[in-house]
Automatic annotation (TrEMBL):
This is Lantibiotic transport ATP-binding protein SrtF. One of its GO terms (molecular function) is ATP hydrolysis activity. Keywords: ATP-binding, Nucleotide-binding, Transport. Pfam families: ABC_tran. The keyword ATP-binding applies. Residues 6-229 form the ABC transporter domain. Belongs to the ABC transporter superfamily. InterPro entries: AAA+_ATPase, ABC_Gallidermin_ATP-bd, ABC_transporter-like_ATP-bd, P-loop_NTPase. The gene is srtF1. The keyword ATP-binding applies. The lineage of its organism: Bacteria, Bacillati, Bacillota, Clostridia, Eubacteriales. Gene3D superfamilies: P-loop containing nucleotide triphosphate hydrolases.
Length: 234
């Protein structure tokens, strides 16, 4: 039986009178890639922000490694949500040095994560001069600095050219072999289809589908059916 690293049970979040997330229950297996799909505004980022402690749920619960989630679990969770949090006047190593200092981690971790994302040769180049792909990879390096068991990536290929997308795809594929589970959110079906083991489809704040990504399945048809069924009326 496959071990589960993360579960949400009937999770919900309301902003004023708008239900952003309603009764969402997902189950993520260890050392897998979970693709969270949904149109823009579906509630994907809201769900991920609750898992990373950026937002507090109105109801439901989150379980991490078999116990109720607490802020202590953030030691084993890394995330890149929206844009990479970079100091553009600093080099890649200096950006990572800020994090190791704050977290009390050894500086040896800097070289380790730079090697993982293949940015070890950027030298004295300021991150403000990095390409979008390099910035995203450095953002992932920052999210890996605490050696997490769970890595959460929210729309990581946004703004990347085809080469950057391919490089990032190969990087993400490598993580389960390093004992890192990945939750990847996207509205780009082809990206998730190429790397995910399981998927969840959110529309209108509702999880309309969750299951294993089966080879040969018409993901576009499945996605459109769910998106149309649950989308919010404007």
């Amino acid at each position: 039986m496959n071990e589960v690293i993360l579960e949400t049970k009937k999770l919900c979040k309301t902003f004023k009178k708008q239900e952003a997330i309603k009764d969402i229950s997902i189950s993520v297996q260890k050392n897998s890639i979970y693709g969270l799909l949904g149109p823009n505004g579906a509630g994907k980022s809201t769900l991920l922000k609750m898992i990373t402690g950026m937002l507090r749920p109105n109801c439901g619960e989150i379980l991490f490694n078999g116990h109720k989630w607490s802020r202590k679990d953030l030691r084993e969770i890394g995330s890149l949500i929206e844009s990479a949090p970079l100091y553009e006047n600093l080099t890649a190593k200096e950006n990572l040095k800020v994090r190791t200092t704050v977290l009390g981690l050894p500086d040896s971790r800097i070289e380790e994560v730079l090697n993982i994302v293949e940015l070890e040769d950027t030298g004295k180049k300021k991150t403000g001069q990095f390409s979008m792909g390099m910035k995203q990879r450095l953002g992932i390096a920052i999210s890996l600095i605490n050696n997490p068991k769970l890595l959460i990536l929210d729309e990581p290929t946004n703004g990347l050219d085809p080469f950057g997308i391919q490089e990032l795809r190969e990087l993400i594929r490598s993580f389960p072999k390093k004992d890192i589970t990945v939750i990847l959110s996207s509205h780009i079906l082809s990206e998730v289809e190429q790397i995910a083991d399981h998927i969840g489809i959110i529309s209108g704040g509702i999880l309309g589908y969750a299951g294993e990504l089966k080879q040969g399945e018409d993901l576009e048809k499945l996605f459109m059916n769910i998106a149309k069924k649950y989308r919010r009326d404007e």
